[in-house]
Every structure is written in C-alpha cells, then in structure tokens.
Amino acid sequence: MNYIDPHIHMISRVTDDYQRMAYSGCVALSEPAFWAGFDRGSAEGFRDYFHHLTEVEPKRAAQFNIRHYSWLCINAKEAENVKLSREVIAVIPEYLQNPNVLGIGEIGLNKNTRNEATVFQEHVDLAMKTNELILIHTPHLEDKYMGTRMIIDMLKNDKRVKPERVLIDHVEEHTVRLALDGGFWCAMTLYPTTKCSPQRAVDILEMVGTDRIMANSAGDWGKSDPLAVPEMIQEMKRRGHSESSIRRIVYENPLTFWRQCARWQDWPGAEKETSRRRGKPLAV
Amino acid sequence: MNPLPAPKALDSFFLEARAKLLDVAAILDRIGRGKDAGGTGDDPRLERIRKALEVLHDQSGGRAERIQQIFSREYDSKWERPQPR
After folding, report:
1. What is the pLDDT of residue B38?
2. Which residue range is the domain that position A225 belongs to?
3. Which residues in A129-147 are b (16+ Cβ under 10 Å) and which e?
4. Is A169 among the domain residues?
5. Which of A253, A65, A174, A198 lies closest to B73 in space, CA to CA?
6. d(CA B76, CA B85)
7. How far away is chain A from the Cα of B36, in angstroms, using its nearest Cα?
8. Average pLDDT over residues A72-100
9. Within 10 Å of residue A17's Cβ, how many Cβ atoms?
C-alpha cells in the first residue's frame, strides 16, 4: 500500500532509509525544521539548514521516487533564545516561495516557558501575514498536556487562525480530543518510549475515528523507526480494519491537509485517484 | 472503525500484556534491589507509578488516558498569554 510519512527528519537518516521506505510503499514525506541536537550559534546556520531542507533533501528523496516537502521555523527548544529566534523568523520568508515548502513548522512549546510562548506567537504572526499552513510540535511526556492546552489557548486567542489550516502533532490519549474538538488536524507520532506505539495509535483511531487525523514516524537522530507507519498499517490489518480506513489515515488525510497550501501542485493522477478511492471501498 | 470483539482481542494481546506486566514488575524489582533503595521511597515518580498501577485495577475504561494524566503536569488556565501582532 502506498503511504505518506508526514513528519520525518531525513537530514539525520542515511540514504538506505529512503530506499527501505520506498520499498515499503512511501511515496511522499514532509520534514519539519527541528532541533539539530545542539543549539545553533547564529541565524546564518539556519540559512544553511533551510537550504538543506528545501534543496538537498528533495533531490536525495527523488532518487527513490519519494516526494519531499518541508516546513520552516526555529524549533521550540532553541526558541528560548528570543533574539536568535527573531533573526531566524526574519530569514524564513526568503524560503517560503520554494514549491516544496508546505508552511511554518514545527513550531510549539518544549518546557512551556514564557519565551517559548512569545516565539510561538511570533511564528503564528508570520504564518498569518504570509497565509501559510502551520505544523505544531507539542511537548514531550509530563509537559505535553499543559503545553497542548497553552498552544490551543494561543491559537484560539488569535482570531486570524483558521483551525482547519493547523495541524497539532504528537497527540496521545490525553490530548487528541483537545485538538480534534478545537477543529484542528492532528497527528500521532509512532516513536519508542516517549510517544505513541503503533498499537496505541490504532486504539486511538478506534476511539476517535478517521477524520482530521494521521500518523507519522518522526524518525530522527534518536532511536526511532522510519518504517513505523508501515508497522501501524500492519497493526490495522491485523485488527481487520478496512483498506479504505487505512488509506485514509496514511495517504488521503495528509494529502488533504497539504493541499490547502497556496503553492500546492497536485501529483500527476493523485487527485483523480484520491477522489475515486473516497467514493467506494478499496479492493487492493 | 470497530474494535476487535473482546474474546479475539484477549486472544491477540494476552501474551503482550503478560510480557509488559513482567517488564514493569522487573523494573520495580530492579529499583528495589539496588543500593540505597530505601532512599527512593518518597520519590514522586514512584508514587506516580503506584497510582498508575491502581488505575489498572479499575474496570471503567479510559485507563491509558487516566494514566497519561497521572504523569502530566497541571495546567493553569490563567497563564499569561502573548498577544497576536
């Protein structure tokens, strides 16, 4: 089955991972800007990073017929440095006209500090001024519930924000309904120990359904699995869920969200294929 | 999306549940076996684990969500929000 991984950090993966993802049916992915494992010293370092995201990785992915998209920002961890964050936010518009850029992300909170909230709001300001989609990182572990509530407070406080143009990522059992009830899209991250297992992700789908929700691996430089989405597909099959439900989660929902990007160009045949499959159950 | 019938779910996941319970039991034994185990008695993380284990006894559902809440910091709705510009 073809699938999309809507959140994976390929900059920290080897080329063999692209190959294995292609073998497993991955046809597209999106890569949000994130923490490199160390705090960068200047906005110039982010220029190089944005060049890598918008020029280098799409070419590496294309060798395996995988479409590569990206999201730009300074991540929540480095956002504690407000001065650097403002310099990076000023650079972002230079890269927004790249056809593979989907919007602003992954912005959010890390330790739920005042500085992180300030920089989050300034990213939202930029997205509203430039009509961009937003991809949001929610904090890890004990900070997740509080951070998700704070993020939704800020989004609801900004009357310019259209929830259907925002995706709240890394939702789990205690935050998924906060995102969906607010009218936002959301994603579950299939990541060892600190986030959601493929089994729990399918439990969540059984509880909340298939509207405005997707799944990703968030594969990065930590111990993580770039084939986590196919593992979730297997779990859904194991429990007898229909091909159409699976396809909606791993292919149609990411595409539907991405298509709202003003620069979006549909793949040859993709729109026709998606609408045909929406109309009736699949026979794969 | 309908969940599996309960007997089928039990068949499918019994061994997985057994293995994970053994893992938790072994982790608690490991902590208890270690040097200065007494010093961890009032560690709030162990208290949270004890509370989470109590949730497992409860038959009323939503256990995963309730355990997530036990391991979550409290949200204050009066926090000072930055304003849009």
Report:
1. 86
2. 3-279
3. eeebbbbbbbbeebbbbbb
4. yes
5. A174
6. 24
7. 26
8. 97
9. 19
Helices B44-57 and B6-33 pack at an angle, to 10 degrees, of: 150
CB atoms near residue A160 (< 10 Å):
11
**Chain B positions with Cβ closer than 8 Å to A:** 1-4, 12, 16, 64-65, 68-69, 71-77, 79-85
Q: Tell me whether residue A284 is in a domain.
A: no
- Best A116, A154, A174, A241 member to test B by mutation, with max B CBs in 10 Å, is A174
The predicted pLDDT at position A272 comes to 61
Q: Give the Cβ contact number of residue A128 at 10 Å.
A: 19
Length of chain B: 85
Report yes or no on A195 lying in a domain: yes
Per-residue pLDDT, averaged over A8-23, amounts to 98
Number of structural domains found in chain A: 1
Does the N-terminal peptide bond of residue B47 adopt cis geometry, omega within 30 degrees of 0?
Answer: no
Domain ranges of chain B: 44-73
Q: Which of A69, A282, A273, A260 is nearest to A166 (CA)?
A: A260
Arithmetic mean of pLDDT over chain B: 96
pLDDT tens for each residue of A188-241? 999 999 999 999 999 999 999 999 999 999 999 999 999 999 999 999 999 999
pLDDT of amino acid A275: 58
Answer whether A206 touches B (CB < 8 Å): yes
Residues in chain A closer than 8 A to B69 (CB atoms):
145, 174
Who among A124, A144, A245 is closest to B84 (CB)?
Answer: A124
Instruction: Say if A194 falls within a structural domain.
Output: yes
Handedness of CA A112, A115, A117, A120 (dihedral sign): negative
User: Cα angle vertex A92, ends A91, A93, to 5°?
Assistant: 100
* ipTM computed for the complex: 0.93
Scanning every residue of chain B, which has its alpha carbon at the shortest distance from the alpha carbon of A151?
A: B81
Question: Which CATH number is A208's domain given?
Answer: 3.20.20.140
The per-residue pLDDT for range B37-76, each reduced to its tens digit, is 888 988 999 999 999 999 999 999 999 999 999 999 999 9
A166-168 β-sheet, strand order: A3-5, A26-32, A67-72, A101-108, A133-137, A166-168, A185-189, A213-216
What is the predicted pLDDT for the residue at A274? 62
Which residue in chain B has the smallest CA separation from A153?
A: B81
